[in-house]
Every structure is written in C-alpha cells, then in structure tokens.
Design a protein that fits this description.
This protein is of the alpha/beta class and 209 residues long. It is built from eight helices and seven strands. Strand 4, helix 6 and strand 5 form a beta-alpha-beta unit. The longest helix has 15 residues.
Amino acid sequence: MIWQRLLARQSRLPSGLIGRLLIGSYLDRVNAEINTLVYEALAPEPQQRVLEVGFGGADLLFRIAAGLDRGRIEGLELSGEMLDNARRRAARLGLADKAGFHAGSVDALPFADASFDLACSVHTIYFWPDLESGLTELARVFKPGGRLVLGFSTDTDLRRDGWTEQGFQAYPTEVIVESCRALGFESERLDSIPRNPRGQVYAYRGIRA
C-alpha cells in the first residue's frame, strides 16, 4: 500500500517537509506506551550518562533529560530533520545543557569506549545495517555494569502487518536476546505490553558484564 510504503520510508529516515513537520510528533504518539516501558526498564539516575540511538521525535530523550542532574544524555540520529527539531526543542525546554545531538549510525558510534552507564533504542533495530555490528558498538561504549534497553515489535507482528515487505528486518525475540548475551550482556528481564489493535511490543533489558 502506498501509505505504508511512505510511512516505512519516513520511519526509517524522516526527511523533507513531511519528516520535519509530521513524523516526529507521529512517532512520539504511536510510541508512547513502549517509550514508557523502556523508560521504566532503563531506570535512569540523575548522575548517569545515557545514550539513545535513533531518538526520532525525542519524547523519550527529553523525559530522560528532565530527570538528570549531573548526568547527560546523548542522542544519535540519522535524520537531519529530527536533529534540527530536537535541538530547537532542547532550547525551548531549557535542557540544552543536559542533552547532545549527533548525526551517525549505530554501527559506528562517535563516542569513546566505556562512555555510558545506560543506552536505549526504540523501534530502530529493524533499520540497523546489521544487528551484531550495532550491538558490538553498543557494548564497546558501555561502562561495566551498564544497562541496555531495546524496545521492539515481534518478528511475527512485523510480518503479519506487512512491514517486512517494506524493508523492515524482523528478528525473533530469542535471536535478539541471544545476540546480546553473546556480546556480554547478561539478560535481566524481558517485559511486554499489548499493542493495539493486536500483537505485542517488548522491552529487552541487559546488563553489560
């Protein structure tokens, strides 16, 4: 369907007038429940250093930033439109000193080793160049004991709803969990909530050994 093809393209890389004016707020709205699930699983503390990969509309990022004191959150994003929107929003909210915004991809993170206490990403693993290379980079930038939270839909739901036909890479939940374990993340829990009108969304939480 034309609308699904357009939405898939904009979800992967928001761009143009549609991306700048519509997609960020749309992503924040449809991801509200999974963002809350991921936030609760992440459990950021005021002094911690946090990374969000592919922040999109940035509601989760700013929710985290608002609770930080001596800590800081860095957001990584491919879309120039989303980066510009987030920078303007940070200034408007008075959070520019707690949040940084960087252009880049998960498989080449522009951060030093052992930079972060926490990291999260919501509905982006379908677009990563490669699951293992993305997780390897995330493992590299974590401090020992760092906590990773990934929010995602099941491979079954993505196939059923036609998103794999639009280029989404669908991973079985067990593949995601085992891939994290193989890179030194000790699986702590896997939470899920019903997704309307049907299906599940999951939040995986792992601790870097």
